[in-house]
Every structure is written in structure tokens, then in C-alpha cells.
Amino acid sequence: MILKIQPAFILHSRPYRETSMLLTLFMPEMGKVSASLRGVRSASKSARQKQAWLQPFQPLLVEWRETPTQQLDWLTPQNIEPQGLAYGLKADAALCGLYLNELLYRLIQPTDGLEGLFAHYQQALHALAQSDQRELMAWHLRQFELVLLAELGYGVDLTLDAQAQPIEPALLYGYQPQTGFYQLNPLPQPRWSITGACLLKFSEQEFCLACLASWKQLMRRILQPHLGTKPLATRALFN
After folding, report:
1. pLDDT band for position 162 (50/70/90)?
2. Residue 19 predicted with pLDDT over 80
3. Per DSSP, which regions of the chain are E strands?
4. Torsion 50-51-53-56 (CA) sign
5. Does position 183 have pLDDT exceeding 60, yes or no?
6. Where are the beta strands (DSSP E) in 73-196?
7. What is each CA distance from 26 to 98, 143, 190, 220, 236, in whole angstroms?
8. Residue pLDDT, tens place only, 39-57
9. HSE-up of 73 (CA within 13 Å, CB side)?
10. List of residues 6+ apart from 210 with CB closer than 8 A
11. Which sign, positive or negative, has the C-alpha torsion 37, 39, 41, 44?
């Protein structure tokens, strides 16, 4: 048996039996992993201490022994402990963080090596914790969505249309999953469109208040085929 220690974040948790919890963890080398943790819901002092940091946005260190017969998507930790302070997300920032967690829960898979995405997730939590304006929070969400798709192999080129032609700042574009961006004629206009200027600013990671609504709708269209028909619970919370 090999002793393993890895950082992790909790994406989801629920009670299990009388005193245990089932956790869904996000780990840089193992992707999404389930874990059972015993004795953390009792009335003991040590259990209450663990409950305080078995929360979203708390960096953790997970220790377990790897065996030849171990399931790739299941751990039985010997120990889980905090690794530094939790990211102090409150109110709207906390909802944004839960949205990131739900995206990860729905889209990443076990055994995915996601060291880069893990680092971007930490950066997003830090940025949300430092933001006091909804517009900036929305910008951080859009940036993370774009990185998430790229890390999972679904990256979108925001500089070329479906015909491999450069996006033109002055033109309007629609988006079709599996196809990409296409130019729109002046009339009639569809229910949604985005300017080439907004696409190029997004590709250059240039914040633009006027583009936020268009970016939000664009990312919904890009993410939808990967998320399926089940709605995201955190979107209902935002509403």
C-alpha cells in the first residue's frame, strides 16, 4: 500500500448513515472523487471541529492508502485536514462559488489529471473573495467557464468563425453548437447575437461592462450541450 496525500476541495457533501458523510472531492491529479468519512457527525469535540472545515471553499489535504484493488473514483481517507484558511466567500460571491462547484461536479470526471484547472479554480475563488461588485464577479465566472472548457478539451476559438475566417469587430455573430460562430445579416435579427468586438475582447481577457450580458448568454449556449437538459440548481438561486 502506498501512502498518498493530495490537496482537495469539497464540491458536494451529504449525510451518510448515523455519523458519516459522503463527499465529492475535486483533486488536481484525480479529478472528481467520492469519499466516505466516518464519525464526523457525532457530538464529540473532534467531530464538531471537523464539521467546521468540511465546507465548500476550504482548502484541504486528503491522506489515504492506495491499494491495487482500489476503485479509481472512490477513496476511504485516513485523514482530512484543512490546508490554510478558507476562501471568505459571502452573499453573492458565495453563490458564484457554488456555481463553479456545480459546474465542476457536472463536467469533470474521475481520473482526469486537472492540475491546471485546480490552480485556476483557486484563482477564481480568490478573485471572487476580493470582489465587491456583481459585474466583476460575473467577469470572473466567464473567465473560469472558458478555462474549464479548454481544460476539458472543449476549447472555443473566439477569433475565428465557422468558416475559419477572422472575427470582424464591426459584425454581428450567432453561435451554433458543434459548428461555431456565423455572421448575421442585418435583418432579420435572431433573439440573441454578439458583436465581433465583444468576442475579441473576451479572447483577449479584456473586461468590458457592455459585453457582460452577451458573454453570459454565449457561455450558456456553449456549455449547454455538455451539461445536458438538467438545469443547474445555482442558476435558480441567482434568480
Report:
1. very high
2. no
3. 2-16, 20-27, 31-37, 60-66, 74-75, 79-82, 172-176, 180-183, 194-195
4. positive
5. yes
6. 74-75, 79-82, 172-176, 180-183, 194-195
7. 13, 19, 39, 23, 23
8. 565 556 665 666 667 889 9
9. 6
10. 198
11. negative
pLDDT of residue 231 exceeding 90, the answer is no
Q: How far is residue 140 CA from its own chain's centroid?
A: 11
User: What's at 95, amino acid-wise?
Assistant: L
Name the grid cell of 206.
Answer: 479584456
DSSP summary character for residue 224: H
Q: What is the rounded distance in angstroms from the CA atom of residue 93 to the CA atom of residue 7? A: 23
- Type of residue found at 158: L
Residue that the C-alpha cell 433573439 belongs to = 191
**Residues near 91 by Cβ (< 8 Å), separated by ≥ 6?**
none
Q: How many CA atoms lie within 13 A of 91 on its CB side?
A: 6
